[in-house]
Model the fold of this input.
Amino acid sequence: MSRSLKLGGALVGFGILLSQLGHLLVYQLQFGSAAQAVQSTGAHAYFPTLVKAGLGFGAAAFLASLLVIGASRFVAGGLGARPAGGPSYVRLLALMFTIQMACFGLQETVESLAAGAAVASAPHILLLGTMGQLPVAALGALAFKWLLLRFESAVTEIRVAMAAPPARVPPVAIAIPVWGHDNRHLVLRPAAGKSLSKRGPPSSMRVSSN
Done:
């Protein structure tokens, strides 16, 4: 899979996730304190579960990316991966906002049809969507750019480290000191002295008897 396809898939997934946060902001601005009740009843009953699942998945993906970045720092000996150039922030913001608005408009249309209500006009959806989706898209594009650059550099660092041949460890010579002093004369001398001390000179009586 090419880099552009991977980038596009990650951007679409991230945009869909952020569109739900923008959806929360839109309803908060539109209904105020009653936003939570509106988003959990009728055709919107699915929304709290969807948001919880989306936030859980996003948090897991973010932690996994940080784990890869941390592993690259360990492989590089603490220096870490050096981010290279990437897509411009303005381009990411435009793409992110477009994805979020498309998702928001489709979601609002399906909810209205499921509830049997009239579908809101395109200007109305565009106005509400811009109020909620644009701030989220601005922050999301900034976070996506930061994470994308470091994640790609981290993956490159890990691939290079895994492809490199393992370093050969030179053999280590262990020197064991050995005491080579001959100490046998210290042991034999007392033994010989003791044996000679028990023997006396030849007895004159024993010679005369023979």
